[in-house]
Amino acid sequence: MYLTVKETAEYLSITESAVNELILSKKIRALHDGEQYLVNKEQFTTHLKQVEKYKELIEEILNEPIPEDIDIKDED
């Protein structure tokens, strides 16, 4: 499925100018049909899956309890 620059910006939650910059810097693959750029939506699938995995990993790390340090002596 192909998206316009505006639809791509909404999908990625960034501005249209940012999408245009990414297209011109070849960080997003796009086709130019003579009038506008068309972006294949499927190229973001892998990236978005990886971002979700990293979010889950970070959440897991943050929720892990801190182990008690055996070197600390109670001086009370």
Explain this structure to me?
- The chain has 76 residues and is of the alpha+beta class.
- The protein has one domain (2-63): Molybdopterin biosynthesis moea protein, domain 2 (Alpha-Beta Complex).
- It is built from 3 helices and 3 strands.
- The chain has helices at 5-12, 16-24, 45-63, and strands at residues 2-3, 30-32, 37-40.
- The protein has a 3-stranded antiparallel sheet.
- β2 and β3 form a beta hairpin.
- α1 (5-12) crosses α2 (16-24).
- The radius of gyration is 22 Å and the shape is rod-shaped.
- The mean pLDDT is 89.
- InterPro entries: HTH_17, SinI_DNA-bd.
- It comes from Bacillus yapensis.
How would you sum up this structure in a few lines?
With 76 residues, the protein is an alpha+beta fold. It has three helices and three strands. Strands 1-3-2 form a three-stranded antiparallel beta sheet.
Please state the second-level CATH architecture. Alpha-Beta Complex
Kindly report the CATH topology.
Molybdopterin biosynthesis moea protein, domain 2
Number of domains: 1
- Strand tally is 3
Which band does the percent of strand residues land in? 5-15%
The averaged pLDDT comes out at: 89
Question: How would the global form be characterised?
Answer: rod-shaped
What is the gyration radius calculated from CA atoms? 22 Å
What is the element string, with H for helices and E for strands? Answer: EHHEEH
Flag low-confidence runs.
none
Protein name: Helix-turn-helix domain-containing protein
InterPro entries: HTH_17, SinI_DNA-bd
GO molecular function: DNA binding
Organism: Bacillus yapensis
